[in-house]
Amino acid sequence: MSQSTHLPLRTGTLPRPHTRLAVLVVAAATFTVVTTEMLAVGLLTSVGSGLHVSDGTAGLAVTLPGVVAGLAAPLLPVAARRVDRRTVLAALMTLLAVANVVSALAPAFGVLLAARVLVGVCIGGVWAVAAGLGVRLAGEEGAGRATAVIFSGIAVASVLGVPAGTLLGELAGWRWGFAALAVLALAVAGLLVAVLPRLPAHGGIGPGAFRGLLRIGRLRAGLLAVTLLVTGHFAAYTYIRPVLERVPGIGAGLIGVLLLAYGTAGVVGNFAGGEVAARDPRRALLLICALLAAVVVLMVPAGGSPAASVAVLVVWGLAYGGVSVSAQNWVMAAAPDAREAASALFAGVFNGAIALGAFTGGRVADGHGAGGVLWLGGGLAALALVAVACAGPRGGRPGRYVKGAATGAR
Predict the structure, then answer these.
(1) CA distance 7 to 202
(2) For the domain 14-204, what is the CATH code?
(3) What is the structure's pLDDT at 17?
């Protein structure tokens, strides 16, 4: 492949405290884009009422960024192939701030949707670049843990970002939720410039890089597993509220607490999955797929018991929390000499699967109810388990991520 330029390890180029701070700032960027993406879920009713559209139409503010992110993730690194990655991240966070300002001031729903298109560009671009930065910032030895911290932005956004933004929207109006995120995005952009080292784009991604990557059988297997797993998860989880509302003894007030418990379990799962995946990504994904296939389906019979439903929901959060970081480790192991191109492809597939899952789940929920989406989610997770198992044991041999990720085209 053309992406075979070897780079020196970055271990020792930054003092250890500075390395930790740099990784945390990148995690703040992922936290900010995920919070911006998902805040529309918490403010959906308020946005629809304020802009005089139905809840179903307002849902486009959730679906559209996912679709755009899926397209932007592989395209943006190609467009910015020679630009320093620190500059790319800071520019994307500045664009995110602009998109949130436009969202906050939107006089009509069409303007809001235009702003959400920009949000999708930022989501895809940030993940395409940030997903593979762990080794460049923390070096060979710290790559696994740094990657887990960067991906923790997803889970922490669920636990803190979205609930806080939703609460602000309820107290002060939905526009203030987006305004607050604009300020946060601008602050993170400044921190990225101040804290990150220069990250030059060596041997940038060419248009043909993705065709070459798709010839790698193990990478195709990983992307297939991610597509099935993430589509299944979002098909089911998008409708978790009506699922929980069917459980005797669980009222509307308790659902928020349960979703907080789910998100907290996701933070734990992110770091636990990252520890396992740094040594053996295949083993991590096998365990995650098996757990998700079981717990999503078990939500059906657990619906008669509050205690069982809570227990299953927490295990669901624990399992899904490790998906992103484990899949990223798999991708890095499968394409060690093309880290940025592989990360961009992974981010595109992941975001596309989010949109596909939400859309498919909606169609199934309309026809078969909340129970139908649970069976669909569990079935797709089981198919993902088969895809990972068929890839063979060599896909996750220990140390492969760390060694391979030290080289590439960044």
Answers:
(1) 8
(2) 1.20.1250.20
(3) 60
